[in-house]
Amino acid sequence: MWAMIVKEFRQLRRDRRTLAMMIVLPVILLVVFGYAASFDVKTVPTVAAGPQGAALAQSLGEPFDVVATAPDEGKAWAQTQLRDNNHGAAVAVIAGDGPTEVLIDGSQLFTARTTLAALSAKAAKAAAQGAAAAPRQRPTVTVLYNPGLKTSNIMIPGLCGVVLVFIGTIITALGVVRERQSGTLEQLAVMPLRPRDVFLGKIVPYFGVAALDLAIVVGVGVGIFGVPFRGSYAVFALAAVLFLFVTLGLGVLISSVSENQGQAIQLSMMVILPQVLLSGLIFPLTSIAVGVRWISYILPLTYFNEISRGVMLRAEPIGPLWQPFVFLALLGLVVFTLATLRFRSFLAPAAPRRGKGRAPAGPPPAGAEAGAQAAAGPAVSPAGQARHPDAGGGP
Predict the structure, then answer these.
(1) How far, in Å, CA of 37 to CA of 288, rounded?
(2) pLDDT over threshold 50, residue 32
């Protein structure tokens, strides 16, 4: 029994990927749930419109933080600020000649709930102090884009990205590693195919399956759960294509450093888990500690969540979304380049192009001429008589 224990410890020590998974993953979970797993929103970015808008927003106090003011603008400007998520605005205060209004972005679920709770608490405090305003002077509170504050309206746009991450990362990694384990990857290497042809041939089917699953998720979310789709399908599709390029590249990159499917699954989980927990899908980004929040900005799912929720819920056009699009494109370029180079490294050199497949010039290797003569058979003299290789050189 002791020999078996020692043998297992030695085998575990040699399997560095599994050992790292057993040690690093609990640390990641501890850090994430200790610092990032928080639904509390401490700051609510607020924009103010109208002559008295800024003063009214400042009078609200915490957790409201005025990030932009426009004394000459009105409700239309405030709605545009919330729709385009300018300055991260989640609340807009309009105070001018007309009635005072407070607009809340319902697509930011936890921020919206924090805002409603804060407004209710301030109204109750004012009423208890006997300084409550007249009913006609109380601001009208309106929740936009998700009036019922339904969780499904927030989760399903994010789940679209999770589906793409799952297929693009895990399934692609397993598919490529399966080729290596079965030995067919070496067969692909000797075929007249360039590495990029094999690379694209491997990921295009997964691209199609992921696109089909994405359409199913969106269709079910809109048709069954009643999630609105107010924006452009073209903008949403462009974001999905860019995001898929990143996830497929990650899958191929993982497969290139994995020896078997078990290692591929372990590495894929280490890539997927931070994206689910730190991308704003479950916990709001503003509630994540600064020391951990920087990880969120290098995760592709963070930018896809921003685009999908903006397009589906707020009908946000492509103009204000240029930043997440640019970051997705850059991440896709980096990951795809690394995956292509890594994939090329364990394939044979590409088939020679036309004009480049001729034998190299220079003297043949030693023994090559003798071997060729031996393969051709005994030499024939000019007189038509065969000469034995051991025969003398007589007349």
Answers:
(1) 7
(2) yes
